[in-house]
């Protein structure tokens, strides 16, 4: 598995870090895009428990930057 350098964040955590407000629906959409991008690049997705959403993925910062920079959703 490919393990890129840098920090890993959940979609909501990354949005908060960037000072962005994100809806649950938008977070789900971006999470699916980040998951697909990770699978395409052979990057393992770490899963953690989140009290609001259940299990959520932790994605490399580089993947999240790409997902958040491509359009609004």
Walk me through what this model shows.
It contains 3 helices and 3 strands. It has 73 residues and is of the alpha+beta class. The protein has one domain (8-69). The chain has a 3-stranded antiparallel β-sheet with strand order 1-3-2. α2 (24-41) packs across α3. The mean pLDDT is 88.
Mean pLDDT over all positions: 88
Low-confidence stretches: none
Q: Main sheet? A: 3 strands, antiparallel
Q: Spell out the helices and strands N to C.
A: EHHEEH
Helix content: 40-55%
Shape: globular
Q: Compute the number of structural domains.
A: 1
User: Count of DSSP E strands?
Assistant: 3
**What strand line-up does the widest sheet have?**
1-3-2
Tally of contiguous helical segments: 3
Q: What share of the residues does DSSP label as strand, in percent?
A: 15-25%
Give the N-terminus to C-terminus distance in angstroms: 27 Å
Radius of gyration: 11 Å
Helix and strand content put the structural class at alpha+beta
Record keyword descriptors for this entry:
73 residues, DNA-damage-inducible protein D, 3 helices
Secondary structure layout plus pairing:
Elements lengths: L7 E2 L1 H7 L6 H18 L4 E5 L3 E7 H9 L4
Antiparallel strand pairs: 1-3, 2-3
Helix pairs in contact: 2-3
Protein name: DNA-damage-inducible protein D
Organism: Nostoc sphaeroides CCNUC1
Outline of the structure:
The protein is 47% helix and 19% strand.
